[in-house]
Amino acid sequence: MRLSVEDKHTRTASIETQQLIIARCLEQNPEIIVVQTYIDNGATGTNFHRPGFQQMLSDIEAGLINCVIVKDLSRLGRNVIDTGYYIERYFPAQGVRFIAVNDRYDSSSPDHAHDGIIIPLRNMINEAYALDIAKKIKAQQRQAMKDGKYVGGRTPYGYLKAPDDCHQLIVDPVAAEVVKTMFQWAAEGDGLNTIAVRLNEAGVLAPSHYKKRLGEITHENLIGNGNWQTRTVAKILRAGVYAGDLVQGVSKVIDHKQVRASADEWTVVRDTHEAIVSRELFDAVQKVLDCAAQQAKDREIHSWSPNLLRGKIFCAHCGHSLHRQKCVRKKTPDVYVYHCISNNRIKKGACPGVFIDEMNLLDALADILQEQLDTTLGQYSLSPENLSKEAKEQKSIQDKIASRKQEIQQLRTYQRGLYEGLIQNHLSQDEYFALKDKYEAKIEAVSKEIEQLKAGLAIIARQLEQYKMLSQDAQHIKEDRHLTAALIDRLIERVEVSREKQITVHFRFQSEFEHCEEVLNQCRNM
């Protein structure tokens, strides 16, 4: 069963109606046993990435169900190509009977062979309906924007929806005071970062956490870390909504991706709701922000050397990325340092603080890498003796694969003999199906073992290749302690530095060898 947002206004499409229609169908087909009911409520039929539908496919492939019933073809989907694929290709290949009650379609019926033209035609009508509905909804939203109605889901920080009109914004007295303070600080010359720190130090809830407290946000992925950040402050100070204007349609969907629309595509309507700050204060803050942005553009740009640890180096105390800073020297070469900026960007006392010279860090990393590579290569040494052992292990796995393939051939021979036994009345129908299921289950189990053994062979080959690469990396570090970005990316997952300059490295290669050994142990015990 499926119900999209646009269907919710139609009683004939409700989940309850669909359940009732399918229940009547089941009354006429008592041989069908209901295993599971799959429901996608509020999901469009133009794509099939729906939780209920995907779970149904998983259960089909697991052999749990062999029949699918829907109220009509549009409940399966409104996409011509994909809907046709599932009805005409996927379901038959999986041995699944498909019933669309209101369309009087049943794939098990001898008459369904004549539906080769009707089914695609109905699917085209369903898709055209979905596209038409989507266009109408977009047109209605665009008109509502032009009429000065708010069409967003969540309201901007500082506003709530009117109890009697979800398209009308009203001032949230609590958050509005924070917004006023932010604009006042900005007008007085406080930068974005200063405002963020002042809010964090004052213990003001960040917008997402405040909205969670109000119940507007429930999903954890939308909440963030709870701290005010410069981009959040900038977004609020730039938003015309706080001067009483609605600026909507700033983003659009292209090829299923949301992108920013050009300014001439925005819908701007002035004085649609109560302003939180005066238009004079809002304009003054825009001038301050524009001036700061221009100064940043005019600032002299110094060339920087590549950041070899970009995205890999973190503070061991607060977990934030360490900031790389260039220290310009007049008489000596410039130096680079890494330091934690949580105290400057979040609030004082947010972190004990970390500071380390890049040259010293890279030199220490070379020592740590050399030591770990020597340990790992020694542990998984591929001496002539070990190479002989690996060859024997490969031969053992290959023999096991050959043996299991022979076993499958034998099982298939037994399986073919079952039908002859049924025809010649040596087996009853119940015995035939019981033995057939038994052989199929055994063939499936042995096939999975073959796949595991093949994975073991691939692991051995990959382990040999990995060992050779690590040996080359170890030799490179011994001969030239200069670390490259490619070498670091290949060997290191994460680097953590503490206030005491203790360096913790999470390696990429160690876990790979451990996984290889785990897979090989499974193969040895098979």
Automatic annotation (TrEMBL):
Residues 156-295 form the Recombinase domain. Keywords: Coiled coil. SUPFAM superfamilies: Resolvase-like. It comes from the Bacteria. InterPro entries: DNA_bind_recomb_sf (IPR038109), DNA_bind_recombinase_dom (IPR011109), Resolv_N (IPR006119), Resolvase-like_N_sf (IPR036162), SSR_resolvase (IPR050639), Zn_ribbon_recom_dom (IPR025827). GO terms for molecular function: DNA binding; DNA strand exchange activity. It holds the Pfam family Recombinase. Residues 1-148 form the Resolvase/invertase-type recombinase catalytic domain. Residues 436-463 form a coiled coil. This is Resolvase, N-terminal domain protein. It comes from Subdoligranulum variabile DSM 15176. The lineage of its organism: Bacteria, Bacillati, Bacillota, Clostridia, Eubacteriales.
